[in-house]
Amino acid sequence: MEEGLLSSGLExxxxxxxxxxxxxxxxxxxxxLAGVEESIQRAKDEATREADQIARxxxxxxxxxxxxxxxxxxxxxxxxxxxxxxxIVNEILDDVKARFxxxxxxxxxxxxxxxxxxxxxxEGIPSExxxxxxxxxxxxxxxxxxxxxxxxxxxxxxxxLRFDSQPITTAGGVMLMSEDGKIRTDCTFEAKxxxxxxxxxxxxxxxLFA
Amino acid sequence: MKRIVEAEKGSERAxxxxxxxxxxTKKDLPNRIxxxxxxxxxxxxxxxxxxxxxxxxxxxxxxxxxxxxxKKQVEGLSKTPEARRKQAVEKAIQLILS
Lengths: 210, 98
What we know:
Chain A is α+β, with helices and mostly antiparallel strands.
């Protein structure tokens, strides 16, 4: 009887030892794995943060890539458009030059223009004696045509005018100079074209493209 | 008594086994973390490449559209009516001769 009691107490003791050791081993595993899981989670969070940073950078970079391509094309388009406008305006200016050359062929109209231009140009020369220079062709055409007399009559100024012996190179118009040549009024077609260029370009553009 | 000693020894072995397992898991941890990190960052990098390719494609498509519109506008300029050109020449001549 006593032996039976002893044996069952022993069995209980052994069972307790095994239970306790199993519980301890489980606790060791549990704690160990908890630490491991925590490390993994920490590393995962950090990697995810880095990935988010890459994603944010990517969005900025992608937007820049797209904008760069679009801006470049817009700039190219703007330049092409301006170049075409410029080409057309230059064509018009060439037509203007041709029209002016035609105009100088019409002796009567051109003479009248020269008279008015000389009369107006005289205002810019304060000296008493004024030299009037024309192109070689105009000199031959108008030397004997009372050009200077008519200009003086229109200007209503008392001055001495004479043709300059040196012809100028121009498509048309005149150059007025004081006797000593120090004061000049350039009334040639080319000078007017230069002087009026901003207005001409604005007027042509307005008429063509407005 | 002998059985108690054996149970104690068994208990000790079980504990050591658990500690060994955990030690091995901890030893493998850096590689495991590196692998996981590598996977996450690789995915982010692949996504980045896909998005950049897509941005390039979308930008190129938009640029092509702009180029086509610009071509139409330039062609439109070239088709400026002759009457308007003549009018521009007349206005310019008037300015010069005035």
